[in-house]
Amino acid sequence: MKVGIEIRRFVTPEEDAGIAALVAGMARAADQGGLDSLWMMDHFFQFPGVGGAEEPMLEGYAALSYLAGITERISLGPLVTGVTYRHPGVLVKTVTTLDVLSGGRARLGIGVGWYEREHLGLGVPFPPVAERFERLEETLQVALQMWSGEVGSYEGRHYTLAETLCRPLPLSRPHPLILIGGGGEQKTLRLVARYADACNLFASTEDALATLPHKLDVLRAHCEREGRPYEAIEKTTTSGMFETPAAAVDLLNRLAELGIAHHIFGVMDAAAVEAIATQVLPYVPGRTPVGTVA
Question: Total domain count for the chain?
Answer without folding.
Answer: 1
